[in-house]
UniProtKB/TrEMBL annotation:
The lineage of its organism: Bacteria, Pseudomonadati, Pseudomonadota, Betaproteobacteria, Burkholderiales. Gene3D superfamilies: alpha/beta hydrolase, TolB, C-terminal domain. PROSITE patterns: TAT. Residues 472-675 form the Peptidase S9 prolyl oligopeptidase catalytic domain. One of its GO terms (biological process) is proteolysis. It comes from Rubrivivax rivuli. This is S9 family peptidase.
Length: 678
């Protein structure tokens, strides 16, 4: 991270540039900006991007003002919830209290950085704890925040990354995990990462001095899960890869405190690797919920007897991944979420028989968070769709659903006219069927339409049905068709599919995009001569890789926080992530794998990028360091291909601030206008 002295020097240099009228990147005296162009936010470094016309800003303004709501937590005793929302005129999302349907949002957190992970004090709801990082660096801190307008109190040391695991309700303690970050290490990297779990009373006079160490465990893949009702035990997951994890149980106090006991897979078993995630404990602590793909391609919900370690399968009849889950206050009903072809649906279960119950009539759309109130017969659930941002609804004990928040949608935009997301499928090079989502422009746009292929990150992730926000401008106002492919390696299609791009198979996923380009050519409404590829994180790598393999078939590429060279990425990503990424991409310490990663990296093949490139990066990104962007920009520019570069000095793995996101969106419009709409 930039040191204060260097930042001050940079600010002085920028001031000098402003006074002298010199261009910061070329040293050439700049022309006075026309009055009808938008100012560049001070936090952005802009290279080779033309001035943004104010007319574009005005035309796109409404599309940047969609503001939905996210559910964060229930008050422990009353019908009040904690909601995440970006208020009108605000730069970032903050936390609010809401106690009536469509009522006033009462601010809880404030400040220039976004707030997340909010949780009420679990006995009386007298305060909340929440998480916050700085400038996108993901060095997440945990704070206590009261409701009296006082300043938030930091509960964690600043040079570690923290995650709230849950509450020991009877003891009044919260439990959190910490991993060190590389800036505190000798030489800026760590050969060995440790995860430490702590317990502390958030109201302690000196929370750092009074916190109690529970355990220090080797590796960065340990994640705390649910805590038993008596506060004595916590579920632990040791994450190895997207296809393998282990489930442990750890005492939180007493003689065996801090000594994890492996539950699944059973110690000594010879079963194939599988995923195990621990869910909620039963009231009496005799069993717990588990999500696992042990018995098939998809993750099922099961119960685990904590004495016998026997598993009871509950959702084997649902051929999709199951995620989420919450049990009603009376313990009689459980709600779960099924990822059905990229759209989240809910199912209700009778906890006595584990049979499915009839699904009440819910608000239409893809369901996000589902959470029962701990004391009252209420279920909060969030819903979004192609036609609108996330909104929170409440389901009562009579099966009646009521809307509790109303998303902010500018009056000038009728989102009900937005076309539904469709699923498309095509055959790839090896005959495997690949799918994706497509959103088409209004029928008023005639002729073959240009295409923006937007590839998700992860790569263990999935393009899912939902509201596209400001990206709808490209569809509604520019007439662009957007395709979001789920190439091999995506989740949601079974545990075999997610491994099909691992290691030496990395470029097979790039070939899936080549096959998509073939499919586009066969479609009467799509223009194969006007295609741009974009993506974020791993999708940024994919965008660069497509630009090297299929440069003659695209008009340009947009790389957002993407990997440009696998070896430099693995060397420079935060140490707590490195081993987890090696499982996916390959271990660069093995000579054969290193040679392969060198060979396929976009930086190595930069001479093949012949079409314009737009690179977007956050300076404080701990996952894909900004050096990944800088080296591909420098190399492609040196080779003579046009490159635009946008760097957020106060951003990380993506842009979180509205003013920065706005400028990025405007610049993307200019880039598409110049490359495929001219």
């Amino acid at each position: 991270m930039t040191q204060p002295s260097r930042r001050a020097f940079a600010q002085q240099a920028l001031a000098l540039v402003a006074l002298t009228g010199l261009n910061a990147t070329t040293g050439v005296r700049a022309q006075t900006p026309a009055a009808a162009t938008a100012p560049i936010p001070a936090s952005l470094l802009v290279q080779n991007i033309p001035p943004v016309p104010q007319s574009l800003v005005d035309k796109m303004a409404a599309y940047t003002e969609f503001r939905g709501h996210g559910f964060s937590d229930w008050h422990p005793t009353k019908a009040e919830m904690l909601v995440s929302h970006r208020a009108a005129g605000a730069s970032t999302a903050q936390l609010f209290r809401l106690d009536t349907a469509l009522g006033e949002l009462k601010p809880v957190t404030q400040g220039p950085e976004p707030a997340g992970g909010g949780s009420y004090e679990p006995k009386e709801g007298r305060y909340i704890v929440f998480s916050r990082a700085s400038g996108g660096n993901e060095v997440t801190q945990i704070y206590r925040q009261g409701f009296d307008g006082s300043a938030a109190v930091r509960l964690t040391p600043p040079d570690e990354r923290h995650a709230l695991n849950g509450w020991r309700k009877p003891q009044g303690e919260m439990v959190y995990g910490s991993v060190p970050i590389d800036r505190t290490a000798q030489g800026g990297t760590r050969a060995q990462v440790m995860t430490t779990f702590w317990a502390v009373n958030p109201e302690a006079k000196d929370p750092l001095a009074e916190r109690r160490k529970i355990a220090t465990l080797e590796g960065g893949g340990w994640f705390g899960g649910s805590i038993s009702e008596d506060g004595q035990r916590m579920a632990l997951t040791r994450y190895i890869s997207v296809n393998e994890s282990q489930l442990f149980l750890m005492d939180l106090e007493g003689a065996n405190a801090g000594k994890p006991v492996q539950l699944l897979p059973k110690p000594g078993s010879q079963e194939a690797p599988a995923v195990y995630f621990g869910g909620a404990f039963s009231k009496d602590g005799s069993w717990m919920m588990v999500a696992s793909d042990r018995f098939g391609e998809f993750r099922e919900v099961m119960t685990l007897d904590l004495k016998t370690l026997d598993l009871q399968r509950i959702t084997a009849h649902i051929p999709w991944d199951i995620g989420g889950g919450s049990t009603s206050a009376d313990g009689k009903t459980m709600v779960i979420q099924a990822n059905v072809d990229g759209r989240d649906e809910v199912r209700f279960l009778d906890t006595k028989t584990w049979k499915e119950l009839p699904t009440p009539k819910l608000a239409a759309g893809s369901v996000g968070t589902t959470q029962y109130h701990p004391k009252l017969p209420l279920l909060a659930y969030s819903v979004n769709s192609t036609q609108g941002p996330s909104q929170i609804h409440l389901l009562n004990e009579r099966g009646a659903s009521a809307q509790w928040t109303r998303a902010a949608v500018p009056a000038s935009i009728d989102t009900s006219t937005f076309s539904d997301t469709e699923i498309i499928r095509w055959k790839s090079f090896d005959g495997r069927t690949i799918s994706g989502l497509i959103n088409r422009p209004p029928a008023s746009f005639k002729g073959k339409r240009p295409v923006l292929i937007n590839i998700h990150g992860g790569p263990e992730a999935q393009a899912t049905v939902g509201f596209m926000g400001r990206w709808q401008y490209y569809i509604q106002e520019m007439g662009i068709t957007i395709i979001q492919p789920n190439v091999r390696g995506s989740t949601g299609f079974g545990k075999t599919f997610v491994t099909l791009d691992n290691g030496f198979k990395r470029e097979d996923s790039v070939k899936d995009i080549g096959a998509l380009l073939d499919w586009i050519k066969t479609q009467p409404d799509l223009d194969a001569e006007r295609v741009i590829v974009s993506g974020g994180s791993y999708g940024g790598y994919m965008s660069l890789a497509v630009a090297t393999h299929y440069s003659d078939r695209i008009a340009g590429a947009i790389d957002i926080v993407g990997i440009s060279h696998f070896v430099t990425f693995l060397n420079n990503t935060e140490s707590y992530r490195r081993d987890l990424r090696r499982v996916e991409y390959g271990d660069e310490r093995i000579p054969e794998m290193r040679a392969f990663l060198e060979k396929i990296s976009p930086l190595t093949n930069a001479s093949k990028i012949k079409k314009p490139l737009f690179v977007i990066q956050g300076k404080n990104d701990p996952r894909v360091p900004y050096t990944e962007a800088e080296q591909i920009v420098a190399k492609v520019r040196e080779l003579g291909t046009p490159v635009w570069y946008l760097r957020g000095e106060n951003e990380g793995h993506g842009f979180a601030r509205k003013e920065n996101s706005d400028y990025m969106s405007w610049a993307m419009v200019l880039f598409m206008n110049q490359t495929m709409l001219k």
